[in-house]
Amino acid sequence: RLKLFKGTVIFITHDRMLMSELATAMVDIDRGRVKLWSCSYDEFLLRREAERETMAEAEKQFDAKLAEEEVWIRQGIKARRTRNEGRVRALEALRSERAKRVTRGALKLEIDTGEKSGKVVRALENVDYSVAGLQLVQDFSWIVQRGDRIGLVGPNGAGKSTLIKLFLGEIAPTAGRIKFGTKLDVAYFDQGRAALDPNASVADYIGDGRDFIELNGQSIHVVSYLKRFLFDSVQARGKIRTLSGGQQNRLLLAQLFTQPANLLVLDEPTNDLDVESLELLEELLLDYTGTVLLVSHDRQFLDQVVTSLLVFKGHGEIEEQVGGFSDWIARGGELHPARANARILPDRTEESAEANEPVANPSSPIDEAAGYEARKQAKSEQRRLQRQAEQIPVELQRLESEETEMMAIVSQPEFFNQPEAEQQKTYAAAQVLRTKIQALYDEWAAVEAALEATTSD
Questions:
Q1: Under CATH, which number does the domain 120-330 receive?
Q2: CATH class of the domain at 364-456
Q3: What is the rounded CA–CA span in Å between residue 54 and residue 395?
Q4: Is 121:243 a contact under the CB 8 Å cutoff?
């Protein structure tokens, strides 16, 4: 609808796909500087990167000039006799400009994965969860292995946060069981910001009252650590209540990354984050070797980070899909925000009363309606299985093509000239691909068997 609108549209969003589709000009607000770019979002990214490269070269030359002047000002008596006040003032201006540039800084994210976890992180077997008569999770089985990066998508209220709580052991399933893996260090990002005390100072929140924290075996001052997350010294000493929503999210991420973790559970970490922070968080998660469970409405973020999806379809139904958000959409996936998100369970007292009533005649309208509903559900299930049977070979072809390309790289003599760490990374990626391919073949066989059963019925 916005594309068809003939007037001017000014919109603020962190949804990069939306910007790419709609924007014809960009206003970039970066740490106090505002600049207009008369181009699309994709073109803006290219131009901004080119500008940053130019600025980096200019800053390099600036630093060389500043170093030269600093040597001059520190020369002996002969130099002090000949120096002029204009050159001294110029040096002061250079120092001032350099100080401003440093305070602008750049976001730097790191995380210590700590000890490697066991191979199986979680195993859910026929898990149900209901509350107040609402079925949020129904008969769900799922295995999470070390190194998986899984995205959770679905309408609000569909049960994503509930599954996270089940996954973390904060609540128990009403049926089924959950097996917990070993050697797990969990870091949990809470979308509700419940852990933030608005009256605490930013530095005290990170350091727990201490001036230094331990990070990757090194001691670092709290204010220096916060500068990595774009908090200056004034903000570091200020109260949390003075921070914007995006700054509070950055603070939560800063606190999250102070602890070693081989399992990251991130519930809407992208809310209120600026684009630069999003891109850097993506880079961090792509380099992260632990396991990631992620809830986000940012489609591009999901595409960049996750290797599989859990799709919450409503009524407690959860479906696992290989690939990112766009892969799922390309295979015909669709979210249904208007669907009822949870199934209302029947009242047990009513069931007991109904059990004592006379059985209806088999030919009654009630039974006919029930039979029609059963046939309708069977047809719907058959169509779903047929779609899966058509989609899986397409995904298999894509993955097997990737595996062929990777094996071609490994077979080249130049491959073994790389550092050992790079070789191992490639081998690990190949193993992940093989695991996905085998899982898809198993899923395909199961789908074909189920489809055959429905057609024979």
A1: 3.40.50.300
A2: mainly alpha
A3: 42
A4: no
